[in-house]
Amino acid sequence: MSERIFTRFFLFLVALFLAGPLVVIAGVSVNEKRSLTFPPEGFSFHWYAQIFTDAGWRGALTTSVLIALGAATLSVLIALPIAYVLWRRVSMVGRLIQTLGISPFVLPPVITALGALSFWATVGSYGAWYSVVISHAIFFTSLPLVTLSLGFSTIDREVTEAARTMGADERIILSTIVLPMIAPYIVSGFAFAFVLSLNEYIVAYMTVGFTMETVPIKIFNALRYGYTPTMASVSILFVGVAVAVFGLVARFGDLPRLLGAWSEGDET
Amino acid sequence: MSAAATVGKRGRDQLPLVFPALMLFAFFVVPFGLMIAVSFFERVQGGFYVPVFTTANYARFLSLFFGEILLFSLALSALVSAICLTVGAPFTYLLTKLPRRRQVPWLVAMLAVLSLSEVIIGFAWSTLLSRTAGVSNLLAAIGLMDGPDAWSPSFGAVLAGMVYQALPYAVLVLYPSFSRLDPSLAEAARTLGASPARSFLTVILPAMRTTLIATFIIVFVFALGAYLLPQLLGRPQHWTLSVLITDQAIYQSNMPFAAAMAVFLVIASLLLVLLTTVLGHKGKPA
């Protein structure tokens, strides 16, 4: 019995640690006045409205969302052929390109950021909108790459073999069997890349930091020039977006499996 | 089929790789190479750099200042990784023993925290530890403290923020191994009379030794990458290598020195990652 109490207490402490800072900024974000106090004095959703009514914050949010949509799309387009080729036949070239795709995410982010800064400055596109989209796409390619590799591994080879015997060519197999089966993994890979791109600071800062303002860049700049409660409300909005996106992935997919646990049926 | 035709077919199989290969080459390999090149270039005061070969940027590593930063970065990352493992291993073990349905909210929470911007984590922790909105208010209200106090910037604040960022990462790295752990292992220990805590410490942890060491290194490299938290939550003496690189590149406009430090950081990280691969192979039964 004491074992269960201990387990609960331990899980509760971890939950408290994870939720603590977020609860405080959630509280700060509903302050009535422009003050950094917790518990909040008065109650108002004013600072949430501010995200959309204030031109600066709305602009930053739009910029962030557009960059994230572009980067996530491009990262899926880069990852999909790699995972597809490796699923059909493991080759040295395939493995090498897969390693290249995963490397940026494993290395410290400041490396990718500095590489991007040197590169875009050299080619003369420093500060251009597409520089951050491309650099983010490269940075986050590993996420769809992981989900898609998993997706391809779920396709039963007997199904594609049967289609081939019945006379289907590779193109038909790809569009009628392979793509529908990996669609959920494309969506989850896209979702992971999208949320991470929204939140990414250093690569965005080193590519377009002086010409554009994404939400993380704007929060950071605001931090240096003094506090505004909109920083808190937009942070909570971002937490909400992350929870909603990963919640949806979990709702329509098998999150434990996606994160590396074996599927329900495999358990013995 | 002739040999030439086989080669041709094999080549065609690899055709879809052209686009990803071009993208990764142009926008990852080239920038990376460029960064290495810049690390050997000469800095121009007030400008960018000129392509004149010099090793002066690397010579600056030999200073006491750099040595202190490096030592501090390594020690801090090791401490963060050790804390994350101490909490993360029992947590992940307990998590994987829950029914799948109850694991899902935890996993969503871990992913959400992991994806949070370092800017947001830094802001949230500095608020939590501040004098006006922080937990010290709570402690003062219930009489444990005389009055609210500011706990940030401090070393403790840096540590808390970095553990906050790295803990979900540690849990998600440990999750596959723990969820595939043979449940009969713990059961056997229980049947032989070991308490749950004892069976975890004496049976589960030793069985996971290789995974734990690999995770320690992976989380260590992850913590080494934190570029904002030491700056937002600490004082200048708490700056790490990643912070210093950002500072040199952006605020001091010294790209060559920043690049040299980045190259150094890559080599250190790669050696560590290599070490996990070697350990991973050793761990597998021959």
What does this structure look like?
The complex is a heterodimer of chains A (268) and B (286). Chain A has 2 domains: 21-53 and 227-260, no CATH class; 65-214, MetI-like (MetI-like fold), CATH 1.10.3720.10. Chain A contains 13 helices and no strands. Chain A is mainly α. Chain A is globular. Helix content of chain A is 78%, strand content 0%. Chain B is mainly α. Chain B has a single domain (63-283), classed as MetI-like (MetI-like fold, Orthogonal Bundle), CATH 1.10.3720. Chain B has a two-stranded antiparallel ribbon. In chain B, strand 1 (42-43) and strand 2 (49-50) form a beta hairpin. In chain B, helix 4 (64-97) crosses helix 8, helix 11 (209-224) runs antiparallel to helix 14 (255-283) and helix 13 packs antiparallel against helix 14 (255-283). The longest helix of chain B is centred in the first third of the chain and has 34 residues, at 64-97. The two termini of chain B are 38 Å apart. The model of chain B has no long low-confidence stretch (mean pLDDT 84). Chains A and B meet through helix 1, helix 3, helix 4, helix 5 and helix 6 of A and helix 2, helix 4, helix 5, helix 6 and helix 8 of B.
Q: Could you spell the SSE succession of chain B in H and E letters?
A: HHEEHHHHHHHHHHHH
Largest interface: A-B, 91 and 86 residues
Total number of distinct structural domains of chain B: 1
Task: List segments of chain A where confidence is low: pLDDT < 50 over at least 5 consecutive residues.
Answer: none
Distance between the termini of chain B: 38 Å
> Low-confidence stretches of chain B at least 5 residues in length (pLDDT < 50)?
none
Cα-to-Cα separation, first versus last residue of chain A: 27 Å
User: What form of chain B results from the Cα inertia axes?
Assistant: globular
Strand-residue proportion of chain B: under 5%
- The number of helical runs of chain A is 13
